[in-house]
Specification:
Elements (H helix, E strand, L loop, with lengths): L1 H4 L16 E5 L3 H4 L1 H12 L3 E5 L5 H5 L2 E3 L6 H15 L4 H7 L13 H4 L6 E2 L4 E2 L11 E4 L2 H4 L1 H4 L20 E3 L16 H9 L4 H8 L3 H13 L7 E5 L1 H4 L4 H14 L10 E3 L6 H6 L6 E2 L3 E2 L9 H8 L9 H13 L23 H9 L5 E5 L3 H4 L3 H8 L4 E6 L4 H8 L1 H5 L10 E6 L8 E4 L4 E5 L12 H15 L9 H4 L7 E2 L4 E2 L1 H9 L56 E2 L27 E4 L4 E4 L77 E2 L22 E6 L15 H6 L4 E4 L1 H7 L6 E5 L4 E8 L6 E3 L2 E3 L1 E5 L20 E2 L11 E7 L6 H14 L10
Parallel strand pairs: 1-2, 1-8, 2-3, 8-9, 12-13, 13-14, 23-29, 24-26
Antiparallel strand pairs: 4-5, 6-7, 10-11, 15-16, 16-19, 17-18, 20-21, 22-30, 23-31, 25-26, 25-31, 27-28
Helix pairs in contact: 5-11, 5-12, 5-14, 18-20
Protein name: Molybdopterin-dependent oxidoreductase
Pfam families: Molybdopterin, Molydop_binding
Subcellular location: Cell envelope
C-alpha cells in the first residue's frame, strides 16, 4: 500500500466499517482472529451492508457472511484480476475519480512490454540475476526513480560512480512512499484513450482474467464469481463504498505484496480510497505489529519508514537525501525528518559541522532479514542472537533450519514468558530425537531471561488502524521478570559503562547516544512516557512539538519518529485519551491517537471531488469551506488545511508545495494513487498471477510458472523445493496445504499453550480435511494423519469437516489441508509444528515467507519417529526426483 498510495498503514479504521455498503474479507478469518474489530462488520451488516468472505476454509467469518467463496490457496491475484477485468470491461469504474486522482491517464514509455507480450514477464528481466531493470517501465516524458530505500541502492549510478547495488537489499522499502519523479512532466491523456496510457495497459493486462479462467485457476464457479463482481461494483461509486480487509493470508506468499497491490488497483478504480466505508484495512494480528514497523524492528528501515542507508563510498547526509528523498510531496521533507531523528539519537553531539552524526548510522551491505540471518548462522558468520518475543524454533518457516542455525551460535538470549521451544531445542528438539544433533556437541550458550507482560509495564500499542493506545502498569512483574524497555535500557547502560574509557572511534556512536532516561522504582524502570515524549519530539527550547509540519532540517528540532509527532502535543499523552464514544462523534478523535496527525482515514481529500465538494452527501467526510478558506469536515484533513482546490504550484516548487489542490495522495511524488507502479517494486508494475513456489498445478495464464524474481535462499539440504505442476514428480505432493490461526491460541503458542484453560480448549495439533479426502486416504475423524513435504514430516489429529470443500481446478479434483500453526513440543498443549513443512521462498519486496500455499501429501496413521522420520522424507524426495536445483528456475 505504501507504493500504491504513499503510506504502508491501513487507509481506514475499523469503526468506519460500519459505513460500508459492502465488505470483502479476503486473506483473513476476521471473526476469529480479530474478533473485537469484527463487531463493526456486524454493525455494517445490520445496516444493510453485504459481507463477502473469500477463503479456502469455511470459518466463523464465513458463517456470518452473505457469501462465502472457497478458492484455491495461492490463487488470489487471479480472482482479484478477474474482478478488475469485470470492472474495466463493464465500465463500472468511477471515471471522474480515476481521471482526477490516479495515474490512469499517464502515458508509458514506448519500449515497455507487458506480461501479455512476454508470456508472463515484464520487459527488463535479467534471469541470471533474478532481477528487473525497470527503465522501460517509466512514464513518457520523465525519468522515474525507485521507491524510498531503493533510490539509495542506486546511489552510485545516480552519483555517476558506477553500477547500482541491485542486490544490496532488493526491495524492502515497502511502506516508505512512492517513487520520485525526475525532471520534466509525465505525458497525460485525460481521455484515457491513448494505447500506452496506464488505463489502456491495465485493460489489456487483465483482459485474459475472465470468469472462465478464474474458475479454472481458483476453483470458483463462474456464477459465484459473478455474484461477487456485482456486489462489489453495485456498492461502489459516487454514493456507495466497498471496503477490503486482509491479514497474513495475503502477505505470506512469494507474491504477497502484489496481492495487496491488486486490491489497491481495484479500490482505486472503484473510487473507494479516502472515503467513508471504503479503503483497505490491513488487519494486524496482535498488539503493536503496526508499531513494530513504524518505529521499527525491521532491519532496513529507520523510524517513520526512513530507509536505512546502504554502504557507499564517501556518502554524506546531503548526498543520501539527494539520492533518496522525493522532489515532490511530503517525502521531499525527508531531510527534516532524518535530521530530527539524528538529534534524538545523538543530541548535542549531532551538529551541522559533523553532518548530525549521519556517519554513526549503520549501513546495509545486503539483505539481513530473519531468513538471511539463519543462513548467516549456518555459515558461522552470525555468532550471537537475541530473541525478543519470537519463537522461531516452531514459529518461523522451515523450523528445522532455525534450530540448526541456533545450534551454530556462540550465544543466544531468549526473552519470553515461558520456556518456549527456542529456549530448549538444544535438549528436546526434534533433531535430538532423530540423532542429527546431540546436546553435548552443541556449543551455543543459551540465556533465558523472563519477560514482563503488558499488564506489568507502562507503554503503548500501535494497532491495526495506526492507533496508539496507552496501557498502564496494573501489577509489578513477578520475580526476575523485566520489561523490554528495562532490558534495552540497562543493557545499553552497562555496555556504555564498560566502553567509557575507550578511545576507539568505532565506539563513539554508542557512547554519544542520548541515554539519560529517567527511571523509577526499586528496579530502576525507565519512564515509558519520557520515551514517548522523545519519540514525539521537541523544539530547541524543549517545548513538545504538535505536528511533523514543525520539523526543521537545521538541527533545531528533535523527533524520534516523525509520523508519531503530535502524540505528546502540549505535553499531554494523547495516546492515553479514553473519552467515551457517547461524548464524541463516530470518528472518535479523542480515543487514543492515530498517526499521522490523528487522522483516521488517510487520503481523505479524495472524499471530495476536484472542486472540493463531497462526491455525495451520504459519503461526505472532508470538504473545502470557501468562506473560511480551509478544509473542514468530520476527520482531520489529510491535506494542507489552507490549500484551495484550484491551487496550482509554480513549476519550480518542491516538496509539499509542489502538490496541487487536486493531489490527495500527498506522500506520492505526483499526488496520485498508482494503478501502475513504474518504480518501487522488484517484481513488476502490475499484479500478475504466478503459481506458488510449491504448486501441483501449472500456470494456466502464462508460460512463466512462478514469480521470476522471488527471493530464494542459498541451497541447503534441508530446504529443498518441490517440482512444479509442469514437471514430473509434482504428483507426489498432490494436495494444497495452508496454515492459519485459531482464536484460542496466539502466534507460535508462547502466550497460550502454557495456559491450562486455553490448552484445554485446543489441546492438540490437528489438520482439517474434507470427508471426500478422508475417505480416499483412509483418514478417521479424531485419528492420526501424517503430512509430508520435501522439508519435513508432521503428525496431526484428523478433523473431518465439510468446511474444507473440495474444488475443481484445471479439470481435476483438488483437496486442501488446513493446518493451524500454534503448536510445538513444550507447554500443556503439545504437538508438531506446521512450519516444519515450509520452504524458504520469500516475497522479493518484503522477505516474507510463503506459508499460505504449499503442496503436501497426507496419509493415515502416526508419523515415524527418530531416524525413520528422516528416511520417510528422503523417500518422498527420491520419488519426486528432487535435487538442489528443483524449483529454482526463474
Amino acid at each position: 500500500m505504501g507504493t500504491s498510495f504513499g503510506r504502508g498503514g491501513a487507509t481506514t479504521f475499523q469503526q468506519d466499517l460500519q459505513h460500508s455498503d459492502c465488505i470483502v474479507i479476503q486473506g483473513s478469518n476476521m471473526a476469529e482472529c480479530h474478533p473485537v474489530g469484527f463487531q463493526w462488520v456486524m454493525e455494517a451488516k445490520a445496516r444493510g451492508a453485504k459481507v463477502v468472505h473469500v477463503d479456502p476454509r469455511f470459518t466463523r467469518t464465513s458463517a456470518l457472511a452473505d457469501v462465502h467463496v472457497p478458492l484455491r490457496a495461492g490463487s488470489d491475484i487471479a480472482f482479484l484480476g478477474g474482478i478488475i477485468n469485470h470492472v474495466l470491461r463493464t465500465g463500472s469504474y468511477f471515471r471522474d475519480y480515476v481521471v482526477a486522482y490516479t495515474n490512469g491517464p499517464v502515458v508509458l514509455r514506448e519500449d515497455f512490454r507487458d506480461t501479455e507480450d512476454l508470456d508472463g514477464v515484464f520487459s527488463g528481466l535479467d534471469p541470471d540475476s533474478r532481477s528487473y531493470d525497470n527503465g522501460s517501465w517509466q512514464y513518457e516524458g520523465t525519468e522515474m526513480q525507485a521507491a524510498s530505500g531503493q533510490r539509495d541502492q542506486e546511489y552510485d549510478r545516480r552519483a555517476g560512480a558506477g553500477s547500482s547495488v541491485t542486490e544490496a537489499a532488493r526491495g524492502e522499502a515497502h511502506g516508505s512512499g512512492g517513487a520520485d519523479i525526475g525532471e520534466g512532466e509525465p505525458v497525460r491523456d485525460e481521455t484515457m484513450s491513448h494505447p500506452r496510457c496506464v488505463f489502456q495497459v491495465l485493460k489489456r493486462h487483465y483482459a485474459r482474467y475472465t470468469p472462465e479462467v478464474v474458475e479454472q485457476v481458483c476453483g470458483v464457479p463462474q456464477d459465484v464469481f459473478r455474484q461477487v463482481c456485482e456486489l462489489v461494483t453495485e456498492n461502489s461509486g459516487r454514493d456507495r463504498t466497498t471496503a477490503f480487509a486482509y491479514a497474513v493470508g495475503w502477505t505470506q506468499h512469494t507474491v504477497g505484496v502484489q496481492y495487496i497491490r491488486a486490491a489497491s488497483v481495484l479500490q482505486s478504480l472503484l473510487g473507494n480510497i479516502g472515503r467513508p466505508g471504503g479503503g483497505i484495512l490491513a488487519l494486524r494480528g496482535h498488539a503493536s505489529i503496526q508499531g513494530s514497523t513504524d518505529i521499527p524492528t525491521l532491519f532496513n528501515l529507520l523510524p517513520g519508514y526512513i530507509p536505512m542507508p546502504h554502504a557507499h563510498q564517501q556518502q554524506d547526509l546531503d548526498t543520501f537525501v539527494e539520492a533518496d528523498a522525493a522532489r515532490k510531496g511530503y517525502w521531499g521533507n525527508m531531510r527534516s525528518y532524518l535530521v530530527s531523528l539524528l538529534k534524538a539519537y545523538w543530541g548535542e553531539t549531532a551538529t551541522d559541522a559533523n553532518d548530525f552524526c549521519f556517519d554513526y548510522l549503520p549501513r546495509l551491505t545486503g539483505s539481513h532479514s530473519t531468513y538471511e540471518t539463519v543462513m548467516a548462522q549456518l555459515e558461522g558468520v552470525c555468532k550471537g542472537y537475541f530473541l525478543v518475543g519470537e519463537n522461531p524454533a516452531v514459529g518461523s518457516a522451515n523450523a528445522k533450519l532455525q534450530r540448526l542455525g541456533m545450534a551454530n551460535l556462540d550465544w543466544l538470549v531468549v526473552r519470553d514468558f515461558s520456556l518456549i521451544e527456542s529456549a530448549t531445542w538444544w535438549k528436546d528438539g526434534p533433531e535430538i530425537e532423530t540423532g542429527e544433533m546431540r546436546t553435548e556437541d552443541i556449543g551455543t550458550e543459551v540465556f533465558f531471561l523472563p519477560a514482563a507482560a503488558h499488564t506489568e509495564k507502562d507503554g503503548s500499542f500501535t494497532n491495526t488502524q495506526r492507533l496508539l493506545q496507552w496501557h498502564h502498569q496494573a501489577v509489578p512483574p513477578p520475580g526476575e521478570a523485566r520489561s523490554d524497555l528495562w532490558f534495552a535500557f540497562h543493557l545499553g547502560r552497562i555496555v556504555r559503562e564498560k566502553l567509557a574509557a575507550s578511545t576507539d572511534e568505532m565506539d563513539r556512536p554508542l557512547l554519544d547516544l542520548t541515554w539519560g532516561y529517567p527511571t523509577k522504582g526499586e528496579h530502576a524502570e525507565p519512564d515509558a512516557e519520557a520515551v514517548l515524549a522523545e519519540i514525539n519530539g521537541h523544539d530547541a527550547d524543549g517545548n513538545p512539538l504538535s505536528s511533523y509540519e514543525e520539523l526543521k532540517d537545521d538541527g533545531s528540532t528533535v523527533c524520534g519518529c516523525w509520523i508519531y509527532c503530535g502524540v505528546y502535543a502540549d505535553g499531554v499523552n494523547q495516546a492515553a485519551r479514553r473519552r467515551p464514544g457517547r461524548e464524541q462523534d463516530w470518528v472518535a478523535k479523542e480515543w487514543g491517537w492515530a498517526w499521522p496527525a490523528n487522522r483516521r482515514i488517510l487520503y481523505n481529500r479524495a472524499s471530495a471531488d476536484p472542486d472540493g465538494r463531497p462526491w455525495s452527501e451520504r459519503k461526505a467526510l472532508v470538504w473545502w469551506d470557501a468562506d473560511e478558506g480551509s478544509w473542514t469536515g468530520h476527520d482531520v484533513p489529510d491535506f494542507k488545511p489552507d490549500k484551495a482546490p484550484d491551487h496550482r504550484p509554480p513549476p519550480d516548487a518542491r516538496g509539499p508545495a509542489a502538490l496541487s489542490g487536486t493531489d490527495p495522495f500527498i506522500m506520492q511524488a505526483d499526488g496520485k494513487a498508482w494503478l501502475y507502479v513504474p518504480s518501487g517494486l522488484t517484481d513488476g508494475p502490475l499484479p500478475t498471477h504466478y503459481e506458488p513456489q510449491d504448486s501441483p498445478f501449472p500456470n494456466l495464464l502464462y508460460g512463466q510458472q512462478r514469480n521470476p524474481v522471488r527471493h530464494l535462499l542459498p541451497p541447503h539440504p534441508d530446504n529443498r523445493y518441490q517440482p512444479s505442476g509442469t514437471e514430473p514428480g509434482s504428483e507426489v505432493f498432490p494436495y494444497v496445504a495452508t496454515t492459519y490461526r485459531l482464536t484460542e491460541h496466539h502466534t507460535a503458542g508462547g502466550m497460550s499453550r502454557w495456559q491450562p484453560y486455553l490448552a484445554e480448549l485446543q489441546p492438540e495439533f490437528f489438520c482439517e480435511v474434507s470427508p471426500e479426502l478422508a475417505a480416499s486416504r483412509g483418514l478417521e475423524h479424531t485419528g492420526w494423519a501424517t503430512i509430508v513435504s520435501a522439508r519435513g514430516v508432521v503428525e496431526a489429529r484428523v478433523l473431518v469437516t465439510d468446511r474444507m470443500a473440495p474444488l475443481t481446478v484445471q479439470g481435476r479434483r483438488l483437496h486442501q489441508v488446513g493446518l493451524p500453526y500454534h503448536w510445538g513440543p513444550n507447554g500443556y498443549a503439545t504437538g508438531d509444528a506446521a512450519n516444519e513443512l515450509l520452504h524458504l521462498s520469500l516475497d522479493p519486496n518484503s522477505h516474507i515467507q510463503e506459508a499460505k500455499a504449499f503442496a503436501v501429501d497426507i496419509r493415515a496413521g502416526r508419523r515415524p519417529r527418530g531416524p525413520a522420520a528422516l528416511e520417510l522424507v528422503r523417500d518422498y524426495r527420491a520419488r519426486a526426483g528432487i535435487d538442489e536445483d528443483t524449483g529454482t528456475a526463474p
